[in-house]
Amino acid sequence: MECNIEAKEKYQHSWNLLNKIKNMKELAEMIDVVLIAEGEKFPCHRLVLAAFSPYFKAMFTCGLLECTQREVILYDITAESVSVILNYMYNAALEISNANVQTVAMAAYFMQMEEVFSVCQKYMMDHMDASNCVGIYYFAKQIGAEDLSDKSKKYLYQHFAEVSLHDEILEIEVHQFLTLIKSDDLNISREESILDLVLKWVNHNQQLRTEHLVELLKQVRLELINPSFLRQALKRNTMLLCDAGCIDIIQNAFKAIKTPQKHSLNLRYGMETTSLLLCIGNNSSGIRSRYRNYGDASFCYDPALQKTYFISSPKYGEGLGNVYTGVVMENNTIIVAGEASASKISRQKNKNVEIYRFVSSNMFVNLFQLSGFDVSNNRRKYC
């Protein structure tokens, strides 16, 4: 007679099996393969490797020499990443950090362990900032991780002014750097920052990079740069005066700047501004989406192009409620104050006014809350 096993008992059964295998590894019992990475040896079990990794399963079942070899050398994989992945296999724990996530992801990609790679990819997305997005972008491009590549590229271009202040961008190859500074999509307000970055990148390894200076200068839109700034750049960077090609490019730029007719150079993304009408609030449920349900987005409308752009609402799914005050400052900082939605008031009756600020990451952040303050008639409530 077959007995049904409860889910809890099945979980316990699986956990007991994992513990038994882990203990066997710790006691070096029934070890039948040794992985070698960077000269460090990792004794383990073929069955465990094959169970988690299609790469090892294919290796141990292909009928070739690897099936009988006791030692398997792993090239281009760090010892730390092998240790992390084996710990995941035997202990159900994946210990990743900013320092090792890319090497672990590379090892998981090599071993065809999709679940580990997915965790590493999510970690990189969640911890992306101006100091690491460049490395994440080129790493993702190298291994063909499209989602990670797309997100990191958008972050890199959107936050380029801040990214250019970090050293990571100085480490990229010349062809990568050229592709970056060519783009119209860089979110910068002044072309001077591109010239500064080019000179900084060359000076980072002047012996090897000076030969690329002419090619790089051709991608800088010198006609958009203030002439006095350009003169100061020449004084501070004598390497610009040591190359006839650089001198010709700069002289032509000065001539173009003096020409009264409008230049034909494209402006980069952050150099143009558009007046938009922001529509937000006065709806406890947000606005209706194209699927006729309520979403967590507010919208901006461009009267000139007759286009609508969506942004996250301050209250997300709950909606902001009635907006009583809205301010746009000179630097385009948007601050709105409104009465909290009815559902939240019912939960927290002493907090009914909330103030939010729109930030560049396309979302509103809560600045603070006012307790028991009635904005509509500007008087204090006493309960």
UniProtKB/TrEMBL annotation:
SUPFAM superfamilies: POZ domain. The keyword Repeat applies. It holds the Pfam family BTB. Keywords: Kelch repeat, Repeat. Residues 31-98 form the BTB domain. This is BTB domain-containing protein. It comes from Diceros bicornis minor (South-central black rhinoceros).
